[in-house]
Amino acid sequence: MPDPITYGSSGKSSSAPRKYVRLTDPVEVVHGIGARGAVTLARLNIHTVGDLLRHYPSRWEDRTQFRSAADVQHAETASLSGTVSAVSVKKIRPGLTVTEVTLNDSGEPLRLLWFNQPFTERQFKPLVAAKRRIVVYGQVKRNSWVPEMVNPEWEELAETGVGLSSNRICPVYPATEGITQQKLRKIVSAALEAVKGSIPDAIPEELRTSHGLIDAEDALAAIHFPAGEEQLAAARRRLVFEEFFLYQVLTALRKRQSSTRRVLSTLHAAPCNEALKRLQGALPYALTRAQKRAILDIQRDLTSGSCMNRLLQGDVGSGKTAVAMAAILMAVQNGCQAALMAPTEILAQQHAALFKRWLEPLGICVELSTGSLPTSERRRVLAAAESGDAHVVVGTHALIQSGVQFKKLSLAIVDEQHRFGVMQRHALAQKGLSAHLLVMTATPIPRTLTLTLYGDLDLSVLDEMPPGRRPITTHWKQPDKRHQVYESARRLLAKGQQVYVVCALVEESEKLQAANAEALAEELANQVFTEYEVGLLHGQMKPDQKEAVMAGFAAGTTHVLVATTVIEVGIDVPNATVMIIEDADRFGLAQLHQLRGRVGRGSAASYCVLLGAPAGETGKARLQAMVNTIDGFVIAEEDLSLRGPGEFFGTRQSGAPEFAIANVLRDNNILVEARGAAFGLVEKDPQLNDASCAPLKMALRDIGDRMATVLRERGEDAVQCP
Ligand code: ADP
Ligand code: MG
Prior knowledge:
24 helices; 6-stranded parallel β-sheet; 41% helix; single chain; CATH 2.40.50.140; globular; binds magnesium ion; DNA polymerase, domain 1; 5 domains; alpha/beta; 7-stranded parallel β-sheet; binds adenosine-5'-diphosphate
């Protein structure tokens, strides 16, 4: 029979005199932490009492159910309780001792074994003498005639029946080198006791009430030592909310600061309307509703009197370029200049060509500035930007490195911003090119991440494709079916269509990747598509070589283009209808989606073939996701949930804040709620002057400092905390 132990909510019974302890105090002030303990904790990045209390459990074990030795199963992990008898230490061989203790619950005995812990004998002797009861927790083995537990956790049964590690929902901390779980529970409990009554609450009471949140002190106590599942859930919700809330208050402040900070040329609505009419007249197609909506968002920003900070998100092929053109026209009609930055030379050239085609007839002068420009040409372009003769300058990041001066720049556009890395998004503005900022991306970032990564940008989404697009059919084939795939492609080549073949990704070396591409191109030219022209494009080629290859493919004189991921971005050849991707499982889903977006741009049916034999289940699920949907947002969500937020962009450049307890995926609803609360508060009280905001301000300064580092790495301005 299990022991009849009453279940209570608190095992703490401290009668030590109260000392006033704050969260910011060094961790040594906590009872039970000596100098050595502090060194160990420092290795876990725990320096203050607050750090210790925010070292949250990674999981909790329900140890409220007791089992008896008579009916506990082999391999079961269980709590048992009883008195101890018969302590002995045996030397098994040199260097190996075993301490053996017998636990007697009312039925069968249970043998407890500890290896190489001779000191346990000393701990048990007095317990045996006084017939004290203990509680043990561990995995039971039934290999011999009496059940055993090896190295179990144990503690003396407390008077209340509830110990720090027994008869409760028990915290289990993330792997902690140099300190045991039991010791951690002890010092966390002591820290909680010490700070009682002195924990400032960063969430103002009014918001706590309206969002149904428990207070900070209760939440901290319950996240470590919850009285039950419900209390644990309430504590977690409160702490997750707090993390998001603090970050979003900073985001709201940042947004306010960046929109009011810069003095710039406010554009006027009348010339904007004129510009839009001219563009609609010039373009060979009607704008989609989504494009119109985005253009109106931008017009509203440009004429509002404050600085535009807008993210234009639209899947590959949704027509972001036309929106950019409209924005540029609005700026130029107002007598200002615009700059557009693209991630690759090919793309910059393509944009410049497009703008020349549609904007020059409207009297707009378009210039291209890339790193490979001859010096004289480059000088001419710089002079034109400075004099104001150039209305639009399109370039790669050479544009911001070259020290280009504009006469009157009012609009900076960053295209395919994900290729620059999140951190460079304000680089244009930082180079003294203070202007309205429009950032465009085809990476369909899940909304959750948008709110954390780009929380200070306004968002326009192109959620509608231009009409008349034929859907792209995606197939996933085993690599040994490669030649059948080529034969299918040949049938489309025969109809005059064109084919991309993307070779395997070699992340470590661009050279190797280029060599792969060369070998594949040679094989295809000499053995497979012998009757067709096969071109080659990779990152190691010279800009003019690349340009010539692209021109040949665009003109249709090259039929098959073998390429590396340099074609991932923006390339627009509507006659290309087949995309074959080698070793597709090596690519990120977002990348595959981008590559697939190179086809399906014309009116003919298009195909994407993924060649790959991924080993694991995740790899299979990822390729299957590509086959199942062409919706970039669904793919992004899938990628995010399969690989986690850190991997989504690649950890280093993600710039994503690291949350201690919040999970941007799972806690999406709380994020949206906390964001609403934060933006509402900053709107109402931008300086956070209300007395109830004092603890909030303190907390903000603390995380503001930490965030400043992240922002600096991203090349962005820090937030000024009130
Ligand atoms: P992305 O959003 O990927 O940058 P693009 O701006 O390159 O997309 O547009 C993709 C293709 O769609 C281009 O060939 C462009 O001319 C065409 N396009 C853009 N908007 C429309 C529209 N409203 N109707 C028809 N075709 C459009
Ligand atoms: Mg584009």
